[in-house]
């Protein structure tokens, strides 16, 4: 049996010790990564230092230069081993993180499934169907009520448009007749005028001119009244 096997066997049975939790294992792996990273940085600095020593001695002191190169080779070998170890630890840490995540997801999904089961135990599919059907019926009733309220409420107003227009024209004609009746026309004399006596020529001329103006004014008055009657008739139509 190898010494490594004896070491792990002598360390005690795995059953006698409780397995660490995933959080503890992740914390230990991160600590190991940090320690190896520091060791890696130290070896890189030592390699650069030994390389500087070898260049310094060169051909002047070959023995010292060779010793520095040998130490550099040992440090490079250790650095390569640490690189491999870090890769292994990183892979193990990622796998453990994924396992922990999957465990938490599975546990939470189990809790959710139990909660859904507890909720559904108090539900009856038949009652749900009846409830949805009742809701649909009430929605239909509400829609019918809304449509009934939205309709215009009116009385029977189907009248004959021609009859209404004829009645309106009669009213307009009556109004026009009333306005025509209120217009006063001039009185026409029924007897002939008396004969005018002979007068002085100068006075006759003045009298005839005044009579002419009176007749012209009386003739213009009926014309103005005719114009008013025409305007009133145009307004009525």
From TrEMBL:
Query: Any idea which UniProt keywords this protein has?
Result: Coiled coil, Cytoplasm, Endosome, Membrane, Protein transport, Transport
Q: Return any one Pfam family short name.
A: Snf7
A Gene Ontology CC term for this entry?
multivesicular body membrane
The segment annotated Disordered runs over 1-24, 177-237
> What GO terms are given for molecular function?
protein homodimerization activity
| UniProt entry tagged with the keyword Aminoacyl-tRNA synthetase | no
Asked if Membrane is a keyword of the record, the answer is: yes
Compartments reported by the entry: Cytoplasm, Cytosol; Late endosome membrane
Q: Which GO terms describe its biological process?
A: autophagosome maturation; late endosome to lysosome transport; late endosome to vacuole transport via multivesicular body sorting pathway; midbody abscission; mitotic cytokinesis checkpoint signaling; mitotic metaphase chromosome alignment; negative regulation of cytokinesis; nuclear membrane reassembly
* Membrane topology, from the record: Peripheral membrane protein
* Coiled coil (UniProt feature): none
What the entry lists under InterPro entries is as follows: Snf7_fam
Q: Where is the composition biased (Low complexity)?
A: 203-219
The record's similarity note reads: Belongs to the SNF7 family.
This one is known as: Charged multivesicular body protein 4c
Task: Specify the taxonomic lineage.
Answer: Eukaryota, Metazoa, Chordata, Craniata, Vertebrata
